[in-house]
Amino acid sequence: MWYLVDVADTARPVRYVASEGKVGERRLHRAIRPNSLAVAAQSMIEQCAATGELGSSELLVRGVRYVVLTVPVAGPGEEVLAVQMWVGEAGIAPPPPPDVDAFVWDGPRWVVFSSGRGGTVLPVGHDVLHGAWLMSRIIECEGRDRLMTAALDPEPGVRWSGAMEVLTVDGARTARVFGWFRYHRDGALCGLLLRVQSDREPGIVLPTYHHDAAAALLGGTTALVDTQRMRLVDWLTPPISGIAWLHHPSSAPEPDSIGDLEFELGASHPIHPEDRERYLGLLLELAAGRTDEARATVRLLAVTGHWQPVDLYCVRLPRASPRFVTVLIRLVGDPAR
Length: 337
Known about the structure:
Blueprint: E1 2-6, E2 14-17, E3 22-25, H1 28-31, H2 35-51, E4 55-61, E5 64-74, E6 80-89, E7 100-106, E8 111-113, E9 128-130, H3 131-136, E10 138-141, H4 144-152, E11 159-167, E12 174-185, E13 188-200, H5 209-218, E14 221-226, E15 231-235, H6 261-267, H7 273-287, E16 293-301, E17 307-316, E18 324-331
Antiparallel strand pairs: 1-2, 1-6, 2-3, 4-5, 5-6, 7-8, 7-13, 8-9, 10-11, 11-12, 12-13, 14-15, 14-18, 16-17, 17-18
């Protein structure tokens, strides 16, 4: 049987039953019997977490031979965030381990760091992704507001776990995962997403129909902005294509783009330098309660390297903290208007 073990709590492995698509968390010495096998498994987990290397051992326990395998689950900088462990009788070939996305979510910068190897949700080759992009991949999640709160302001001891329906890497299908998020270090969470169900083929209605329909009717895209951090924290509808959104997989520069766009995409704000002060001032007015709505036209960096004018319509969320503002973004001259 495969287990997932968070290196921050190696005594509580998560058991994954593939045939049932279920997960369960138990104390190591209750999940694995007899006790001598559990002791050996604990030692191998700790060694794998410390070295980042695969482990394999065969043990004779009460006349039965067991095989214990350990596989490191790396995060950014090859830091081992978790260990996958197989425990079973010798002679029985283990199935492939379930997919695990492992990452560190930096709250103040609202950026997700990973190894770049990819997974069910995270695309290969993208070791830095925007937190809003990650939130946009979560289709269904009980307690989404608590998850966002934990990620925005991580504090020692904070934890969140639960089932999720997520968009897979291709964006056309969904998969069921179980997620664990816990305090990792100052201002950051460790996130683990364990795949518990294979891809679901899209039906007549796409899983993102409510977001796509809203975007089509509005003629633009909507986003949630945190005025305390002055960062976009969630896409409420799909982002406008062709814009160089920071740390977004679709923001690859075009072959004939102008300027040093690779630098711009990784280090700059997508709003034109001459427009930023006006944009930030507008948000501060809303956050201070001096106005309930505001409009402005700014220029956003396009993947071609040019600047694309857009209209912004910003409103305070009713019955919500003044910290958050909703922004409607429309291309200037968009016929949908």
